[in-house]
Amino acid sequence: MRARGLTRSFGDLVAVDAVDLSVPRAQVYGFLGPNGSGKSTTIRMLCGLLIPTRGDIRVLGLDIPAQAEALRQRIGYMTQRFSLFEDLSVRENLEFMAAAQGVPRRRTRARIDELVEQYHFGDRQAQLAGTMSGGQKQRLALAAAVIHAPELLFLDEPTSAVDPESRRDFWEKLFELADAGTTLLVSTHYMDEAERCHRLAILDRGVLVADGTPAELTARLAGRTLEVQSSRPRRAKRLLVDLPGILSVAQIGNALRVLAGDGEDAQARVRDALREQDGDAAVDRVEPNLEDVFVDATRGSPTHRELHPGPDAGGGA
């Protein structure tokens, strides 16, 4: 899947602004961004549900939106809301989706039996979907989305309403699909899910502000993430949030996690700022994580500061 210069405007609002994306086959590609960043709009354009204002899209060798109808037979789509029929049973929902996706009738029964076993619905085939837990509904929605064995699967914040154990099980199913050759594009708000992806893109106000593997993205922040151990963490935080060049200060237990705008003398600058009022504070470098990447991309990137100046521009937390 490839997009170049992908743009979508709604009147004067530019929801997606000249985004370039390349998604390799048989990988889990993560989509991150704050609410209103353009993730869902981008996904809808990539799968042919929304016509872009400008830009070129090619998915599975097809030009989109011109060949969107042909594409729909080869993709699956799952949203954060449960969109199946709550007054139908598990099996009835799968039978309906098989018919809607054009699965041959001679193949339908065997395919549903396969999914019932794979997604652990053996003792729940007759249960009404509306009586199921959030995690069970999520598994049913995923089974329905892949009933026609799509080559490409779009998932728009699919785990936003389920517990951590269900999310973990769900991601195991996603990797099973990727191992079998399915390409997946997943939007999420969860950093632990982002860490599982083969590759990530971060959108902010419609602009692509970061793109790479989790390891590549975190490596770019080398030397810029610090941990402050202080007996008075709240007071130390108040001192640091106004320090020039500091993008973020977050309290984690009794420690502070600090993200600097650059790595040059960051540790010394933070230590000097604390010395007069908190001389016992310890300042150490720590390994960056994806939450640091997210904060840097949405608050500290040059693109973000240039396009969206505001109270955070220039490094204020």
UniProtKB/TrEMBL annotation:
Domain of life, per lineage: Bacteria
Alphabetized UniProt keyword annotations: ATP-binding, Nodulation, Nucleotide-binding, Transport
Disordered, as annotated region: 297-317
Keyword Cell division: no
Cited InterPro entries: AAA+_ATPase, ABC_transporter-like_ATP-bd, ABC_transporter-like_CS, ABC_transporter_ATP-binding, P-loop_NTPase
One Gene Ontology MF term: ATP hydrolysis activity
Name of this chain's protein: ABC transporter ATP-binding protein
